Amino acid sequence: MYSEKVMDHFQNPRNVGEIDGASGVGTVGNAKCGDIMRMYLDIDENHIIRDVKFKTFGCGAAVATSSMATELVKGKTIEEALKVTNKAVMEALDGLPPVKVHCSLLAEEAIHAALWDYAEKNGIKIEGLEKPKSDIHEDEEEEEEAY
Amino acid sequence: MGQFIYLDNAATTKTAPEVVEAMLPYYTEKFGNPSSVYGFASANKEAITAQRDIIADALGAKSNEIYFTAGGSEADNWALKATAEAYAEKGKHIITTKIEHHAILHTGEYLESKGFDVTYLDVDEDGIVRLEDLKEAIRPDTILISVMYANNEIGSIQPIKEIGRIAHEHNILFHTDAVQAFGQVPINVDECHIDMLSASGHKLNGPKGIGFLYIRTGVKIRSFVHGGAQERKRRAGTENVPGIVGLGAAVSRAVRTMEERSAKESALRDYMIERVLEEIPHCRLNGHRTKRLPNNVNFSFRFIEGESLLIMLDMKGICASSGSACTSGSLDPSHVLLAIGLPHEIAHGSLRLTLSDETTKEDIDYVIGNLKEIVEHLRKMSPLYEDFIKKNS
Description:
Chain B: It is found in: Cytoplasm. Chain B: [2Fe-2S] cluster binds at residue 326. The complex is a heterodimer. Chain A is of the alpha+beta class. Chain A is built from five helices and three strands; from the N terminus they run H-E-E-E-H-H-H-H. The relative contact order of chain A is 0.21. In chain B, strand 3 (93-97), helix 4 (102-113) and strand 4 (117-121) form a beta-alpha-beta unit. By secondary structure, chain B is of the alpha/beta class. The chains are: A alpha+beta, B alpha/beta.
């Protein structure tokens, strides 16, 4: 059900871990829906993401999208990192099954949440960054049951 | 099994060679329609009767009380819908539980949409119905009680005899979904006052697409499929002769091997439970410790998620499941694990392993060895585990 790239990033996740004294930390998702992602960013004075680490509780796709998202933002400027959308994460993974698309949204949100934390800590405003939703599932509607 | 270790026997089982062998002639030279007049075809009617006898014997029932269906889900649907319709004048209240298979739960919801009132009983932390709750739920308009014999996810065996007695005392029909239990534990429909019982072939090394509903003589239940006169006019359609013959062969085999198989499986089950609880921290056994199916093991591992666990086990050649196969299609955690009071994140971290008579101690040791490594690996990646460690350091 998963592409080879998803399986690779699930089996060999890149950038797993924590960063002591990180510039920004963001946690999104909830245990009720079975996925939580936490991103740690180390950002230098030139607004470049020097290092990034993640921890994820979730399915194979949740781990793989977290891993791919860290790869896509590492070494980038904040502005460039903001342009890493869930679509970009999915494309880089050669796609996700429809029921797992929300994992890629969660990865995008996790990056945004960590950037938001960085901006708040430093009293700056990042152009184009909105306060991330802590729970990406809140807008999803219950599937209707048909008889 | 050689290439892989199959521990998902509650999802389906390998068709036994003697079952396949019994079925084969009914695809080839014995292909005739049992309703036909000429000899080679009408002989199939006797073949079907012989299977009905085998199944009736296994349950302490009469042969003409066994009705073949296309499987367990059909039998469950039939039992509930047709009873509701037939007894609607007496009352419109049905009692079942929160841990039933979806074939019961969704049928219950359907009946609610048609004006019936359905009570879904809670269960205790071991996944067992409290008899007091059942007694309290009974109303003058209760027409049916449907409680599964044993749960498909956590293996808990229900107090069927007591439930049957309560139903009988109140003159209420009693149906049990025995899809997981039939062939695993001895069942007697009279001792347990069972009026209807659903079972399926492929859970007991028989073929898929065949099952039956036991209907006690005197139960007023309407036809589910209208058409020809098959199954005493209650379930039309040309009989699935190879399937029925396969089911009969599977039931014979299950009855013959039950004692030895259960002893072997439950010894391995207990060995696995003890080792895992001992050797993997932050883990719990779901379901009752002893009142459980001989082949069922179900754990929750805190801080990790079930699908990740399943994929990693699969990479080691181990087939297992997290919740029931029907549940894994959705993103919600298992309704059974929520019903026994587990919080969502712990329900998401469940693992079901269901053994067969082919499972060996070496298989179990291999699984435990890998399980320990995988759980540790996933926990290292888990923000929930990180929070837990920080909080407790």
